[in-house]
Amino acid sequence: MHETITSVTNARVKRLVKLRNRRERDASGVFLIEGYRELSRAVEAGLTIREIYVCPDLFLGDNEHALIERTVAAGAERIELGPEAFRKVSYRDRPEGLVGLADQFPTTLDRLSLSPNPLILVVESIEKPGNLGTMLRTADAAAVDAVIVCEPTTDPFNPNVVRASLGCLFLVPLAISSTPDAMRWLENHGITTFAATPAAMVPHWQADFRGPAAIAIGSEQYGLTEAWLRESTVQVRIPMGGRVDSLNAAMAAGVILFEAVRQRAANESVPTDGV
Amino acid sequence: MHETITSVTNARVKRLVKLRNRRERDASGVFLIEGYRELSRAVEAGLTIREIYVCPDLFLGDNEHALIERTVAAGAERIELGPEAFRKVSYRDRPEGLVGLADQFPTTLDRLSLSPNPLILVVESIEKPGNLGTMLRTADAAAVDAVIVCEPTTDPFNPNVVRASLGCLFLVPLAISSTPDAMRWLENHGITTFAATPAAMVPHWQADFRGPAAIAIGSEQYGLTEAWLRESTVQVRIPMGGRVDSLNAAMAAGVILFEAVRQRAANESVPTDGV
Q1: Does pLDDT of B149 surpass 80?
Q2: Ranges in chain A annotated CATH 3.40.1280.10
Q3: How far is A1 from chain B (nearest CA, A)?
Q4: Which residues on A lie below 8 Å from B171 (Cβ)?
Q5: CATH number for the A4-103 domain, one of 3.30.479.30, 3.30.1330.30, 3.90.950.20, 3.40.50.300?
Q6: CATH topology of domain A109-268
Q7: How crowded is residue A187: how many other Cβ atoms within 10 Å of its Cβ?
Q8: In the structure, what pLDDT confidence band is assigned to residue B139 with cuts at 50, 70 and 90?
């Protein structure tokens, strides 16, 4: 039989709470995945779940058991928490009784593999976990080849990134990189960079995204750093017709990504073989 | 001299805290506007600010004084709060020392005035204040004629809507309505409704948004209600190329709105006078 941890001061509980802190995540190389959908996508993506914390009293349905069995069969240790201890660990208002502790996965640029005509999202120094998570979810929907997170202010293993991404963090090929390394990698792969900046003259829909393309979006507060705004990149802006001077950073990423998707779909539908 | 309220149990402080609650807002007809940018936009839009609560210790810069003077000159009562009392009232992590209490403004459909070729955003039963606020900010950027909030789950006077909208709540013409009333109003004004639904066959970029158009987006969890998915509306979907089955609701609104903006800009750039 499993013993249930009920104390909120239990050492394991305290360790999980500490993992909300980036320094703890960086030092330990692990991170938390909360929620049924998020954990399912992590398992589907082949992540190593070391420990799975469960609180059956909080389960919403019956699917949880199969998922738990699957992670345990793959080597995860199952630990049961009482509702109070679970709520302490959870970073949600309404916890659903499932938190996994997983190994951070490798995120080097050299691990990315590209399609013949890649579409990439590059984001630099995003501050808000909700924005970074939404960007990953949107990038998945746009079927990008990869998301490159440059100079992370918020790291992708932040629990609120996992959450806002709905687990897309595990589905979208992801690299974390410095800005110079990312620029060099993009150049070496013959990918044109489209830098989103309000200073650009060209509306985003006038850029040609049909070839190998990387769309670069800067931080909420400062936008892209100067490095991205040089001659070798195409600068584009989303025309602002109202009083605000910018879109939310995740929104800007989505609007430009789906313009690229539109152009590429239109391109594909042109018959090229004369049939 | 003004007296400073320092007690967190002061009656005024308690009243402001209660206004986070929708029932209190509905009953009193007032709401809170926090922050320099948000209050500035409210003043600019001609809202009636009844009371302005200030905590100079928390000011970020020197602009606050001119804004306070302007609201006081327009009839607002100025009340000074100590930092502790202000933090109690504030709904931000890092309060900036300014909260206004304003009259809710009228939001009936008949108050909307339309351009010859209107573009409208319709949102139904949005749950998350952050999404509704982002939709208002994005709608402003897309220069819509109006946003129609149908069957509100979250009301637009929620403090987090004010915040996420960056005050665009006061800049974008806004109506609150039932779904049947909104549909009738749109029909009466000869506006075609484009309902976003994953069940649609037509990618959003294949719809023609160049005429009078309303883009309708449903709730985060359930999407649009059946009423919107009838023959008289054009159903469109944003093609999903990845593993997730939908975009965030605000993102969906932005992607379709900016496709409409793109089509309309392209339309305008076609020379019509032979020059």
Answers
A1: yes
A2: 109-268
A3: 37
A4: 242-244
A5: 3.30.1330.30
A6: Alpha/beta knot (3.40.1280)
A7: 13
A8: very high
Asked whether the predicted pLDDT for residue A124 surpasses 70, the reply is yes
Question: How wide is the angle at C-alpha A130 spanned by C-alphas A136 and B34, nearest 5°?
Answer: 150
Contact B143 A247 (CB under 8 A): no
Parts of chain A belonging to CATH 3.30.1330.30: 4-103
Q: What confidence score (pLDDT) does residue A275 get? A: 37
Structure confidence at residue B268 (pLDDT) = 75
Question: pLDDT tens, B180-210?
Answer: 999 999 999 999 999 999 999 999 999 999 9
User: B273: which 2 tokens?
Assistant: 């006078």
Dihedral in degrees, nearest 10, Cα atoms B76, B82, B88, B90: 50
The ipTM assigned to this model is: 0.93
Give the total residue count for chain A.
275
Long-range contacts at A68-71 (CB < 8 A, ≥ 24 apart): A68/A98, A70/A43, A71/A39, A71/A43, A71/A100
Query: For the segment A73-106, what is each residue's pLDDT rounded down to a tens digit?
Result: 999 999 999 999 999 999 998 999 999 999 999 9
Sheet arrangement for strand B98-103:
B4-5, B77-81, B49-54, B98-103, B30-34
Which among A142, A166, A168 has the least Cβ separation from residue B241? A142
DSSP class of residue B257 equals H
pLDDT of residue A244: 87
Using an 8 Å Cβ cutoff, are B214 and B99 in contact? Answer: no
CB contact under 8 A, A140 and B242: yes
The three-class DSSP label of residue B164 is: helix
pLDDT of residue B211: 97
Provide the chain B residues 207-266 that lie in CB contact (below 8 A) with chain A. 238-244, 246-248, 250-251, 254-255, 258-259, 261-262, 265-266
pLDDT of residue B271 exceeding 60, the answer is: no
- Between vectors from CA B261 to CA B255 and to CA B265, what angle results, nearest 5°? 145
Binding-face residues of B in 48-67 toward A, CB within 8 A: none
Whole-prediction pTM value? Answer: 0.94
